[in-house]
Amino acid sequence: MQLNIPEGDFAGYIFDLDGTLVNTMPLHYFAWRDTLREFGLKPVLDEALFYAQGGSPTEKVVQTFNAHYGTSFDPITVRDAKELRFVDMLSEAKLIEPVVAFARARAAEGRPVSVASGGLRHIVRDTLHAHGLAELFPVIVTADDVAHGKPAPDTFLLAAEKMGVPPEQCLVFEDAALGIRAAEAAGMRWVEVPPIPLVHTD
Fold first, then answer.
1. What CATH code would you report for 25-91?
2. Tens of pLDDT along 155-180?
3. Cα separations (Å) of 140 from 15, 89, 145, 200?
4. Is CATH 3.40.50.1000 the right assignment for the domain spanning 12-23+93-192?
């Protein structure tokens, strides 16, 4: 994987989690697909539609799926069922090593590093702990901490504030278009993490 790191002396580094530090996006897709099927969705969840929601809060994702498929699933009920299914699969996820190595190197230099995710706090913490990353990131910002998720800048701005770094001196690592838009809205430069292809399972 090639990471195109922009030139500059950045004072702080902000990392999305799913699809950026840990390759959980395929697992999220399978969890959504199977949960929606359990709740009665007839078509198989469209992959492009799913990936377009990257970085969006889980309840909002359900609302988007409802609008697309003409369903009326309860966002909280479906969210909770999906997250339970996802947690059961967490051990299958793999670290995205080039990004994790970069984060570890910056932390070793004494540079502030943080996680800024659109996920729920307990899911983010479970993911970090499951993959040995919890101690690396003293600052964690999740959907539970902001009123407006990505593509609004709130998540990244709060991470910068907690690190004590001006937004313009932060570099964001993101895999999703919504996250990149959020970084730009926050006045931060960014690195796009290339997607890892989805492996189909039934």
1. 1.10.150
2. 999 999 999 999 999 999 999 999 99
3. 10, 22, 9, 31
4. yes
Which of 9, 16, 88, 145 is catalytic? The answer is: 16
Pair 53, 156: CB distance under 8 Å: no
Q: What does the chain come to in residues?
A: 202
Q: At residue 197, does pLDDT exceed 80?
A: no
Residue 102 neighbours by CB under 8 Å, 6+ apart: 3, 5, 13, 173
Which helix (H) or strand (E) segment is 128 a member of?
A: helix 121-130
Letter string b/e over residues 68-94, b meaning 16 or more CB atoms within 10 A of that residue's CB: ebeeebebeebbebbbebbbeebeebe
Whole-number Cα distances in Å, 82 to 92, 118, 137:
16, 15, 26
Query: How do residues 71-122 score in pLDDT, each as one tens digit?
Result: 999 999 999 999 999 999 998 999 999 999 999 999 999 999 999 999 999 9
154 is catalytic: no
